[in-house]
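User: Batch of two.

Assistant: Item 1 of 2:
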Amino acid sequence: MQQKGILLESGTNELEIVEFSVGQNKFGINVIKVKEIIQPLAVTQIPHSHPNVEGIIEIRGEILPVVNVAKALGLAASQNPNGDKFIVTEFNKIKVVFHVHTVTQIYRISWNEIEKPSGMYQGLESQITGVVKINEEMVLLLDFEKIVVDINPNAGINVDQVKKLGKRDRSTKKLVIAEDSPLLRKLLHDTLNEAGFDSIEFFENGQDALTYLMSVVDSGKRIEDEVQLVITDIEMPQMDGHHLTKRIKEESKLAVLPVLIFSSLITNDLKHKGKMVGANAQISKPEISELVQSIDQYIL
């Protein structure tokens, strides 16, 4: 599974997803996040733990928490526990096991096939980041980072990290940020404001961010006079962060822009993908203080 994800070329705007089910619903997870899929192991329960956490298991000497996805989504328990699966994942520099009901297969798709969730059913608290139609069925892409942060808020962006960096005046510096999660957009807005950045333009995906940047240069303005730096997530509907970075670096009038990738998918195994598309820096969520320091490095 890990090799399959890594073998995808960088910047193609494609991804592979593992399709799995919980109850009657079909869901997907990016293959890059998946370390392995195993049969359920005996779980050791932890007293007074979060209700969505079944307990812990040991895999090759590592103690990992097991999250019951059905409970996290408010869905019914498995009707056939013998067919259940454990998906072992790694993102945000942590490893977590997700208990699901079935795992079907892997699909290779383009990010532009993924629709962003409608405002009617998304909202700030939604656990759905995208919807894709596969074999006449709707597959929902889950926000696994949010599921983890709901259990452990300390795993999310922490404004206190930025306060320790001290006050700075960055009011004349404009940032463009591509981030599909409404909750993370708000957290980034509040945290970067605390760091002194008042001029921030947010976009829900790479395509919208690129359209904006191109509109600036098409108007005859120098991009470096209007925007000082771009921050992008990787996983986004329509256009992912690797493809956005590649497009910026290949466009002569945009290539001067520093691009920082801020994603849960920054690991030693995957950093080469960002380097291949020309990213100036890659920071793992939720290391917001490291992000701010990197911004300072490239816009001074």
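Item 2 of 2:
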Amino acid sequence: MIVRVYNNAEEYLLDYESVLLENEAVSQLVLYNAYQCKNNPDLCDILFGVITDDDRVVLHFSNIPNSNMAVYVQDYGKDIREAAMVLAGYMADNQINFEGISAKYEVCEAFIDEYRKRVKCTFVQRLEADIMVITQVNEIKPAEGYTRLALSHEVKMLTDWMIQFQIEALAKEIDYESALVKTTRMIDDNRLYVFEDNNGTVVSMAAASRKLVHGIAINYVYTPEEYRGLGYAATNIYNISKKYLDKGYDFCTLFVDKKNMLSRRAYEKVGYHTVDDIYEYKLLQV
């Protein structure tokens, strides 16, 4: 197997954008990274590439600063474990820095096993999630209240929620200033939504975090513990999904923790279905 690398996102997209778009919801992390880098040509230390076998692409990967290396499987007919090991060897032998890996479990497992043979390190699992997609919403009995854009004066409360989301969903902490900057930016960009009950209390939030070519990725779905089990998050997701589908997007997508069966069932009632899964491991140098 051969590693083919690109230090230019535009060149990578010229060769592979059409292939990635064929399975956009599953390839979204690699694809989104490529668009971000294409639109910000001054970004340094970026790397895109493919692992090929007999001129057939097996894996795509992207590695950009402050993000996990994202891996997308194009060809399941080939040995994806071998391809992951080849990628691990390339990253180790060339001493390329990366934060961690986001990929299918088989890819993560093979990559980590091979990488640890070459570099003294450890990996910690942060996420195991299903990738869910919706193309048409089902009719549901919504919770009472309504979805609206978050307002600037709510930034401190929503920043606290953002931190709690990171701790609960991703098993990691984020410093307050970073969370405040992220939350402020999403409010300013009209990408953060809240659900307000009939008493005027904000009880849930979610963000349209990644704009794709044909779809929208929803993230940061969080409801404080005292408001859970009342259908607020599901209704918020229903309203946000319907809004973007009505605007002409082909699909909405989100990641849901594999252990969170209640959320998965709630999203399925809205109309979401699972198309693949993804695991995240953080790299810790020893």
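The domain at 134-278 is CATH 3.40.630.30 (Aminopeptidase).
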